[in-house]
Amino acid sequence: MKILTIIGARPQFIKAATVSRVIKKIENCTEILVHTGQHYDENMSDIFFDELGIPRPDYNLGVGGGSHGAQTGEMLAKIEKVLFKEKPDYLLVYGDTNSTLAGALAASKMHIPVVHVEAGLRSFNMKMPEEQNRILTDHISTLLFTPTDTGYSNLLKEGINDSSIYNIGDVMYDAAMYYGKKAQNNTNILEKLNVKYKDFILATIHRAENTDNIERLTMIFDELSNVAKTKKVILPLHPRTKKSLENINFNFSESKISFIDPVGYIEMVMLEMSSKLILTDSGGVQKEAFFHKVPCITLRDETEWVELVEAGFNFLAKDLKSLETLIGEVLSKSFDYDKYSFYGKANAANKVIDFLKVNK
Ligand code: UD1
Ligand code: UDP
Q: Family assignment (predicted)?
């Protein structure tokens, strides 16, 4: 069985790490890894291959930056060429990035079965590039693996046949458990940043809806700067957000936010596990907060991970001006994380490959 996997953005390296590890152990199964190049900085790409033991990509298409159309179009053309050459049995894609859509579209037009891991998620906000990518990818996929019950029922509601959908849980849960244990003994990030366990807030911001809207961007960073006057706030800065803040002449030296460069996954997991609260607009980080039993405030109006909001582990900061009040409220609550397993009970990566073997 030959699987051609498309990856390109930071969260996809982490998802692929768990599945690639399983593929490596299977006899007569080859994985061709294609990196679109969507993320290309050392600390947005290479670092994950090195520390998570992901095999070096067989192809790097070098398509980073640019507008959505140009980026997706160039990926599509380049992936098609690789597919003609490699002729895989399956094309495997993760999540909802432009790399995901380009891969799925290239394969679907060549009648190569598309396998979508992390299918079925919806924000019901069609302005999000990710929502467009998810819906289009799901509707041209042959096998759809959902991480949650909600994802499964979203697909049924859109008319996708239940014989193609499997709710297997979340491959990111596998990663969080596996690397969470390793992180304990393999990083000194807390010492490096001079912070104490459970004595700081961890924040990440990179969503287009926050970085490309000057009013929202300004409000978010003003609010975070206010919070940072009384509480330590560590913020690994995504390159997209850095550029947006530079464009509005954000005063980095005046703000008390502790900005750091993006970190590798092991350091990130350690920061997550050690923080007392997470503020984020990241999809992956919202779930990791739950996996590592840390309360989370999401700086968006909606989320695809609705079960965390419904169960009261994640709070949507719809009114950014009340962020400090919301932080106070959340920090005064206690949470019973052990009652819930919204994302399966691990081994999602094994399930993906087991299904592919059976369907081959
Ligand atoms: C992409 C995904 C988003 C995902 C995020 C993960 C799409 C539409 N968006 O958003 O769903 O949550 O990745 O982090 O696919 N840049 C660099 N160096 C890098 C990578 C990016 O400087 O290594 C800068 C470039 O200016 C680039 C911009 O960030 O143009 C945006 O990068 P892009 O990959 O297009 O989108 P993300 O915001 O990273
Ligand atoms: N992450 C990381 N280093 C960082 C910030 C995030 O390793 O500096 C990890 C994080 O733990 C999660 C993934 O990157 O596993 C999430 O990626 P991102 O927030 O970029 O994308 P999203 O999940 O929103 O698509």
A: Belongs to the UDP-N-acetylglucosamine 2-epimerase family.
